[in-house]
Write a structure and sequence with these properties.
Layout: H1 10-20, H2 23-30, H3 37-47, E1 66-68, E2 71-73, E3 77-79, H4 92-103, E4 108-109, H5 117-123, E5 129-132, H6 138-150, E6 156-159, H7 169-173, H8 182-194, H9 196-204, H10 224-234, H11 241-250, E7 255-260, H12 263-271, E8 276-279, H13 293-304, E9 309-313, H14 319-327, E10 332-335, H15 337-368
Helix pairs in contact: 1-15, 4-5, 4-15, 12-13, 14-15
């Protein structure tokens, strides 16, 4: 047993978050849909991809910086949108935006964040990203876009995999969706009260606990639970690519479509005017049993070629994970659970330390796979002979006659474009 005096890995921050948070809140971040098979596969498929160590190469100068959407990033990493973030740490979204800015990476604010666009803008000095759902009330959508523009947002992330809400059994068991008996409500309240540091710092000092971006649309709501029915009723299951084309007319800046998990949908997003897609299964929180994000990343990259940028999220837990994703066709990755675990467990200093650790891990991985720059991270850094069966598909090979889904296979050894 180690002393565990200081957290080192994302797993350490997860452990700290589990200790600090009331169980219902920890399970809300940590859990996935149904039996959580896709949640587990997101991480396991990453870990199963072997790297190819190379030696006696000049890697004395290493540079992980990239340029994307007119921004310079310190490394190919962004902080993904997290709903209810401000319930896990006091005004968490403002802390995340500020920390990401110091590190030199983008932060994306969720539509259902606790802190509003305006509050986060006051904490940041540079533009952050905004994640949007297509609500049934298009007037609210137009208003949110106007507010985002007003505070300097340039990059819009549009989430498309929430036509309906996935069933998350952990949340149901904890009563997050309601239906608790009187005894159940007492047990839930007792668990919240038992976590005294959280109760004081977040429960009392972290108010107001409302969805800051939506507060004006649901004026009588005073807690996240009060917004639940309204938000669920606003998710629009009728949205199609035509709506993306309309959104493209409303939004002049970079438009990123998040939640793509097939080559067909990636090509449709490109055709609808998206500048990029994020290969994502919503962190395993929507449809259980689908492909892991990293398992689908090379197929999506092959399908769109150089037309649009490909990003991915889901299962990234280290700097070596970033390298694996870039080797399989992503331009950058997003992390969600790791950054909120760090904030919940150790606050702003915890998130800063975690991001510095991830950057250091990426630096080591680049040096020992002989890839001194982000552009040099190609499939050559992977040991293909050790690639697990689930990922060793025709779309990962440099096929002569085209990819397995009928598209032309793109040579992943070529440098990817800068948007």
């Amino acid at each position: 047993m180690t002393l565990n005096l200081l957290p080192a890995s994302t797993a350490d921050y997860r452990r700290l978050a589990k200790q600090r948070l009331p169980r219902a809140l920890f399970d809300y971040i940590d859990g996935g849909a149904y039996a959580e098979r896709t949640l587990a596969a997101n991480v396991a498929d990453f870990e199963a991809i072997a790297l190819k160590q190379r030696v006696m190469r000049d890697v004395s100068r290493r540079d992980a910086r990239i340029s994307l959407f007119g921004e310079d990033w310190a490394m190919p990493l962004a902080l993904a949108p997290i709903g209810l973030g401000g319930m896990m740490a006091r005004r968490a979204e403002t802390l995340a935006a500020r920390t990401a800015e110091k590190i030199g990476i983008p932060f994306c604010l969720s539509t259902v964040s606790i802190c509003s666009l305006e509050e986060v803008a006051k904490a940041a000095t540079k533009p952050f990203w905004f994640q949007l759902y297509m609500l049934k009330d298009r007037g609210h959508v137009r208003d949110l876009l106007a507010r985002a523009r007003a505070v300097g947002v340039k990059t819009l992330v549009f989430t498309v995999d929430l036509a309906v809400m996935g069933a998350r059994y952990r949340d149901m068991r904890n009563g997050m969706g309601g239906g608790l008996s009187r005894l159940g409500r007492l047990r839930l309240a007792a668990d919240y009260a038992a976590h005294l540091p959280w109760a004081y710092d977040v429960g009392i000092r972290g108010k107001p606990h409302v969805f800051g971006n939506l507060a004006s649309y649901v004026p009588r709501a005073s807690t996240p639970a009060d917004f639940g029915g309204w938000v669920a009723a606003q998710f629009d299951a009728s949205v199609t690519w035509k709506d993306i084309e309309e959104l493209r007319r409303w939004w002049e800046g970079p438009l990123v479509v998040k939640g793509v998990l097939s080559p067909e949908d990636a090509r449709a997003a490109a055709g609808a005017g998206a500048d990029a897609v994020i290969v994502s299964n919503h962190g395993g929180r929507q449809l259980d049993g689908v492909s892991s994000s990293i398992g689908m990343t090379p197929r999506v990259a092959d399908a769109v070629g150089d037309r649009i940028a490909v990003l991915m999220d889901g299962g990234v837990r280290s700097g070596a994970g970033i390298l694996r994703a870039l080797a399989l066709g992503a331009r950058a990755v997003l992390i969600g659970r790791p950054w909120i675990w760090a904030l919940a467990g150790r606050g702003e200093r915890g998130l800063s330390a975690l991001l510095k650790t991830i950057k250091a891990e990426l630096d080591v991985a680049m040096a020992l796979t002989a890839a001194p720059t982000a552009a040099a991270i190609t499939r050559d850094v992977l040991d293909v002979s050790e690639t697990p069966p689930g990922l060793a598909q025709p779309h990962l090979t440099l096929a002569k006659n085209g990819a397995s889904d009928g598209t032309r296979t793109r040579d992943l050894r070529r440098d990817r474009p800068t948007l």
